[in-house]
Amino acid sequence: MNCSAHSLLVHARYLVAADGAHSSVRAAVGISMHGSDHLVEGLTALFRGIADLQPRIERIGAVSSGAQLAQRFRQDSTFRIGDAAHRLTPRGGTRMNTAIHDGYDLGWKLT
Questions:
Q1: Is 83 domain-assigned?
Q2: Is 40 part of any domain?
Q3: What DSSP string runs through 9-53?
Q4: Cβ proximity of 68 and 37 under 8 Å
Q5: Once rounded to an integer, what is the mean pLDDT over residues 53-72?
Q6: 99, part of any domain
Q7: pLDDT of residue 54 exceeding 90
Q8: Domain, as residue range, for 23
Q9: Residue 1 has pLDDT above 60, yes or no
Q10: pLDDT at 99 over 80
Q11: Cβ atoms < 10 Å from Cβ of 81
């Protein structure tokens, strides 16, 4: 490993892209995603209080979700897991559960 004030150079046998749905690692190696980028769009709101006592809105946010699959999960010594490999809707905790499974599955293969 070499370090300077502005950069870090690391030599490794494998690179695991676990850097999210907009993976810069996946983009750097030229892997595209297939499927809908905007499958679901909506709003979320967090209310505080009891219904009879005029609850107040704490936070409002936009939500969007896609259903996409990476063209390949592996290219040479680069692997993709989690949202870098597949974007799912958040329904039922499937994104987190699938990402954990990906890490477990790849972990024993690389040891």
A1: yes
A2: yes
A3: E---S-EEE-S-TT-HHHHHTT--EEEEEEEEEEEEEEEES-GGG
A4: yes
A5: 86
A6: yes
A7: no
A8: 15-110
A9: no
A10: yes
A11: 23
Count Cβ neighbours within 10 Å for each residue of 33-56 and write b for 16 or more, e otherwise.
Answer: beeeeeeeeeeeeeeeeeeeeeee
| CATH (domain of 83) | 3.50.50.60
Q: What is the pLDDT of residue 74?
A: 93
Structure confidence by residue, pLDDT tens digits, 4-44: 678 888 899 999 999 998 899 999 999 999 988 777 788 88
Residues composing the chain: 111
The count of structural domains within the chain is 1
Q: Is residue 10, in this structure, part of any structural domain at all?
A: no
Q: Return the number of other C-beta atoms located less than 10 Å from residue 110's C-beta.
A: 9
Q: Which residues contact 96 (CB under 8 A, 6 or more apart)?
A: none
Cβ–Cβ < 8 Å for 25, 46: no
Q: Tell me which amino acid residue 102 is.
A: D
pLDDT at 3: 62
